[in-house]
Each structure stands twice: as C-alpha cells, then as structure tokens.
C-alpha cells in the first residue's frame, strides 16, 4: 500500500496535477505518526526475515514525505524533529539517509539553515555512538569505523545539496577539517574512499581547494585500486569539468600531464574504469574543457572501434551518442573530427584487418562511419 501511494503521488507530480496531489497527499502530522509507528515496529521486530519489509515501508513513507510541502508549521516542526531522530538510528540504510537529507533540505529555511541542522546531526552521530561493552580492541576499532562511515555518508549528502562557495568560516569547512581530511589520511581503505568522495564534493565548492588537491586525486588514480581508484578518477573528471584543465594542471606540471593521466585510464583493463574515463573525457570535450582536443578525440575514436572494447557496452553506448552530438555542435568541432579521422583510421587498419572475419566493424566500415 505504501508503494502504491508513493507511485501514485509521483505520477501526479510528473503530470503536474496539483489538485490530485493535494487530495491524496497525507498531512504532515499523519505522515509523521506513520513513520513513528513503523520505526517503533522495526525496533521491536526480532525476526530478521520481516525487518526488510518494514524497512521498505519506511523508505516509501520517506519518499512520500519528500513530495510534501509542509505548509503547516506544527507539522513541519514535528517532521523535522522526527527526521533528526530517525537519522541517528544506528542501522539506518543509506538510501533512507539520502531521503532524510532531502526532507530536511525541504524543511530548512535556506541552505545555511540546512547546513547548520545537518552539522548538528553529524555531531550527534559522533557523540551518541553506542558504547562498546567488549574490551576487544577489534570491536572498539570496528565501532569507531562504523561511526566514521556514517558521518561521512551524511556529509556526502550535505555537500551534494550545497551550492554556496566554501569559506573558512563556514560549518562545512569545519566538517572538512574534522572528518573528511582525517578519513583521507586514514589507513582504512573504506574511509579513504568516502573521504576522497567528500573531498571532491568540497572541491566543487572551492576552486583553490581543488587546485591544492589535484595531486592527491591523481595519486589515488595511479596508486589506488578498486573503488578508491574509481572515486579518485571521478573526482578528477568532476573538477576538470567544473574548472577546466588549465588551472588544475599546474599542480601536475602542465595540461599534457593531466591528459596523459586520463589517457592511461582509457587503456585500463577494468571495463568500469575505462567506461568512466571515456564518458568523462567525452563530457570534457563536449564542454570545451580540453585546450587541444584533437589528441583526446582521436583516442576516443580508436577506442570506439577497437575490438578490445567490444564487450564494454557502457563505453560504446556513451560514445555512440557523443560523436554525432560533438560533430554537429559547431563547424569548429567538425574541423577537429576531420583532422583526427585519417590518423585514427590508419591506427585502426592493422587491428581491424585481423578482425575482418569476426563480428564488429571492418576498417572500411569504420572509415565510412567516421566520414558520415
């Protein structure tokens, strides 16, 4: 029933049917009571097989609350108090934390009020951590790790909803120094991953911070593995898209060094990393963030037709859309495509000739598609 109500309300929202929304949307106080009821039910439930059903209902109710406008001041206060209480539940799922952050943002007067409330929440999470009864050092370490992870998850959702420039006097700057930087410097890989992600979001609010941390993100890409490497690459691509390569590359030496770093990720054996790098570079090219685009464009062309990427659907789907969109965007872009087409075909000829009897494009088909 909760799922049906949520889906119906979202349908009305998509159609911008305000009358139907007002007619079927529960009142804030009623919604708050429902959330409290199911929250208590979840806390009392001992059967692990039933807990996911209750958690699902709670998530649907939170999504319904996101749609609400909270015109009633009493309902607004009641919901805000409840959200702050719910986010402190130790085992709360991450998707519920995200929904609660959206609700608190809607309940807040402005961005500064939202940040103030959420910083207090982070402080409460760190202070109200459950006491560890065991004297085992491993149990103590694990409990501290879980508290730090939850704090960083909340900080991530704060930063994703902030747009004001970061300043040393802001509350977010305090979170950066107290939580994010220690996480990046931690020996725990999982904390490093969350720390890199939060630091990248901070960099999107402060250009000087981005310039100062380019080398750190580059080290995560070069020396990291798995999710840490992926988050470092995502950070580099995001800040490059925001600020361009020219200023950021100074920390690495020159723009060519930044480009070489991205090119190296295009040759990664990991398909997810390769697709992320390809999509990020395509966005940078489309936004004219790369000073000399010919080299990167040629690399993407070769990658698109190379047999080694035949199974990387995410990469090829992105590039299938990118090349026509980039080319038809302006005459200058078409001129760059003309410049790189012949070198790309020459590089592909030897490789594609060997694959001519197998599935995939031949060098002749590749040349014809590029010309088109």
Report on this structure.
Keywords: Cell cycle, Cell division, Chromosome, DNA condensation, Mitosis. Its main location: nucleus. InterPro entries: ARM-type_fold, CND3, Cnd3_C. With 372 residues, the chain is mainly alpha-helical. 75% of the residues lie in helices and 0% in strands. Helix 12 (226-243) packs parallel to helix 15. The protein is globular and about 70 Å long. The mean pLDDT is 87.
Helix run count: 19
Give the uncertain stretches in residue-range form.
none
Distance between the termini: 52 Å
Write the element-wise H/E pattern from the N-terminal end onward: HHHHHHHHHHHHHHHHHHH
What is the percentage of strand-forming residues? under 5%
Helix share of residues?
Answer: over 70%
Q: What's the gyration radius in Å? A: 25 Å
Shape: globular
Tally of extended strands? 0
* Category by helix and strand content: mainly alpha
* Largest sheet data: none
Q: Look at the structure and give the mean pLDDT.
A: 87
């Amino acid at each position: 029933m909760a799922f049906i109500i949520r889906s119906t309300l979202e349908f009305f929202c998509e159609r911008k049917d305000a009358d139907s929304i007002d007619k079927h949307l529960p009142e804030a106080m009623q919604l708050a009571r429902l959330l409290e009821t199911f929250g208590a039910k979840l806390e009392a439930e001992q059967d692990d097989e039933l807990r996911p059903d209750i958690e699902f209902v709670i998530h649907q109710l939170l999504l319904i609350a996101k749609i609400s406008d909270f015109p009633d001041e009493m309902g607004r206060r009641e919901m805000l108090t409840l959200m702050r209480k719910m986010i402190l539940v130790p085992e709360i799922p991450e998707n519920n934390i995200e929904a609660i952050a959206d609700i608190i943002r809607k309940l807040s007067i402005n961005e500064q009020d939202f940040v103030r409330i959420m910083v207090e929440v982070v402080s409460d999470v760190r202070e109200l951590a459950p006491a560890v009864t065991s004297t085992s050092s491993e149990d103590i370490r694990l409990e501290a790790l879980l508290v730090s992870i939850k704090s960083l998850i909340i900080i991530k959702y704060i930063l994703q909803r902030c747009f004001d420039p970061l300043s040393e006097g802001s509350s977010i700057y305090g979170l950066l120094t107290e939580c994010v930087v220690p996480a990046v410097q931690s020996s725990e890989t999982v904390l490093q991953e969350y720390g890199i992600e939060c630091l990248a979001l901070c960099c999107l609010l402060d250009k000087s911070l981005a310039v100062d941390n380019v080398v750190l993100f580059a080290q995560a890409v070069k020396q990291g593995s798995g999710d840490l490497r992926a988050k470092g690459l995502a950070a580099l691509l995001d800040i490059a898209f925001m600020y361009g390569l020219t200023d950021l590359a100074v920390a690495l030496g020159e723009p060519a060094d930044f480009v070489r770093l991205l090119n190296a990720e295009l040759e990664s054996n990991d398909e997810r990393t390769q697709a992320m790098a390809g999509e990020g570079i395509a966005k940078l090219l489309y936004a004219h963030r790369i000073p000399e685009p010919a080299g990167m464009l040629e690399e993407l062309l070769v990658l698109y037709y190379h047999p080694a990427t035949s199974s990387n659907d995410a990469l090829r789907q992105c590039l299938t859309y990118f090349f026509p969109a980039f080319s038809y965007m302006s005459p200058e872009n078409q001129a760059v495509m003309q410049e790189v087409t012949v070198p790309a075909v020459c590089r592909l000829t030897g490789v594609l000739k060997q694959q001519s009897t197998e599935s995939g494009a031949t060098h002749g088909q590749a040349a014809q598609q590029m010309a088109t």
